[in-house]
Design a protein that fits this description.
The protein is of the alpha/beta class. Helices cover 40% and strands 21% of the residues. The chain is built from 14 helices and eleven strands. A nine-stranded mixed beta sheet has the order 5-6-7-4-3-8-9-11-10, with helices on both faces. Strands 1-2 form a two-stranded antiparallel ribbon. Strand 10 and strand 11 form a beta hairpin. It is globular, with a radius of gyration of 21 Å.
């Protein structure tokens, strides 16, 4: 069978559901170690032997709704490849808006900003900020040991100039990645919210769990049946984690600092109410689809 024929057969294996061709092309590129554009010029090339078997196995996993990112073991975020797998939330393009909000706010400000990412997951936000803001001091926490392990793997891959001395364990038992010529220093902390982390921060950023039980039940099986529930669902109609973070903001955010959260239409109003109760101005930003996506908390009210 040719490469072109294998892609056409993938239509039947994936039941021609929405996005089937993109999924098949990404999986085939993963198997062949090539770019998607190369599939066009190689369409008449034979696909047999081990590559054929690996592609068939990948299609079978995708047909069972396993996310493509878990099958390939990688997802791009802010132009960089992040390792992912079962037990960690897959980074979404929409979450890049949080990075944009921080970088826009930080432009022209003093060096050495202190940044905290709560619920870091794969480390996508924290490590991206470490590479985009090399003078910063980045702290990132997660209550899931599995997720934090993925963050450590990505830090070793993206931050370390030499893998032999990629990281250290500090006096508190936290994983510490020293500053290099191209990245900030990064602390990865096991714990919920602010646990194990002292002091104030210039920037706080978080993509917390915010779906309700009903929203998860209605989600695509790719999400509902595969990604970790603890990274998706929160109590109190999705507001529980926001409330815990925001209530402590007056003591944790430095004067004039910035806090930014990923949100949804469902929780937007509640997040705004929590922010106002804590004494912060809260602005909402929409994504390209017109949904509430980012909450930005700025200068405390007088």
């Amino acid at each position: 069978m040719t490469i072109g024929g294998a892609l056409q057969e993938a239509r039947d294996r994936l039941q021609a559901r929405e996005g089937w061709r993109l999924d098949a092309e990404v999986l085939l590129c993963h198997v062949l170690g090539c770019r998607r554009i190369d599939l066009v010029t190689r369409s008449e090339e034979e696909l047999d032997g081990e590559p054929s078997m690996r592609f068939a196995a990948a299609l079978a996993r995708r047909a069972a709704h396993e996310p493509v990112a878990y099958i390939t073991g990688e997802r791009e975020f802010y132009g960089r490849p992040f390792l992912v797998g079962p037990g960690v939330l897959i980074p979404r393009p929409e979450t890049e808006a949080l990075v944009d909000a921080v970088l826009s706010w930080a432009a022209g400000r003093a060096e050495g900003l202190r940044v905290l990412d709560i619920g870091t997951g794969s480390g996508a936000i924290a490590l991206t900020l470490a590479l985009e803001m090399p003078t910063a001091d980045i702290w990132a926490s997660d209550c899931s040991p599995n997720a934090l392990d993925w963050a450590k793997r990505n830090a070793c891959r993206l931050l370390a100039e030499t893998f032999s001395s990629a990281h250290k364990i500090d006096s508190e038992g936290q994983t510490f990645f020293p500053r290099t010529g191209r990245s900030a220093q990064v602390h990865l902390v096991s714990g919920s919210c602010y646990a194990g982390i002292e002091g104030r921060f210039d920037v706080l950023v978080s993509n917390p769990p915010y779906l309700t039980d009903e929203e998860v039940r209605e989600a695509m099986p790719d999400v509902r049946d595969w990604e970790p529930e603890s990274a998706l669902v929160a109590r109190d109609a999705g507001l529980a984690v926001y409330r815990e973070i925001i209530e402590a903001l007056p003591e944790r955010l430095a004067p004039g600092g910035l806090a930014t959260f990923e949100i949804s239409d469902t929780v937007a109003g509640g997040v705004q109410d929590e922010a106002r109760r804590a004494g912060f101005v809260c602005e909402m930003e929409d994504d390209l689809a017109g949904h509430k996506r980012v909450a930005v908390l700025r200068t405390p009210l007088e």
